[in-house]
Amino acid sequence: MRPKLSLLLGSLLITSANSATAATGCQKGERCTMVVYSEQSDTWQVINKARAERAFSPFSTYKIPNTLILLEQKKVNAESSYQVNTKQYPPEKWWPKTWLASDINLKDAFHYSALPLYQTWTNDLNKTNIQRHLDTFNYGNRDIAGPLDAFWLNSSLQISAFEQIDFLRRLDKKTLGLSEQTYQTFSSIFLKEHTDEYKLYAKTGTGPIAKKTYVGWYVGKIENKQGTHYFAFNMYAPTFREMVKQRVNKAHATLEKLNIL
Question: Keyword annotations for this protein (predicted)?
Fold first, then answer.
């Protein structure tokens, strides 16, 4: 049975998450994992390795490969503004106001996880092309047998934290069979935060995988004076609200503990 979209808010940014009380990092034995690979020093840091090897639904972290495919197929571009097709995807009460704007650009659609926009865009693709790209990307289990507009939402597509890192590294090495323009455009979309000390590229993703069990992702990379550090974090929470309160803060606390952020 296909899950309700209200339970599949992949990575809606809720500002209260940033103002939550100080979080503790992921600890050994907790229901979470963090994997960090530091390119320049060729070192791995892993918390809860068994969980890091376990594949989960990517939820809105799939917007990383999805956006690359959409750019490469010229279904979207960074200069245009977009609006949700409310006839195809009627608004629901839980939708954030940002999804109903008439001028959503691609970067905002990516970071605010405008699910109905991405579903509409994905419907303009076909599974043959998507499969070809995901095979080239070697993205997770590459299984898109689920619905065309939802196979990444607690459906057939699955990926582990280690596999997230592998994919991000090959993205940076530009070995995904994409055009230079696609790589450059996506880099500007992926960038989340830029300070004097670092650049943070990140994507969240959250959704239910069982009763009272949500999995939350935070994946990306940090560029600082020590080089490039790829990271993939996931955790459990009993509700979407609890996940949003904890996910990014806990991931950042873990990256600080590992002297990455």
Answer: Signal
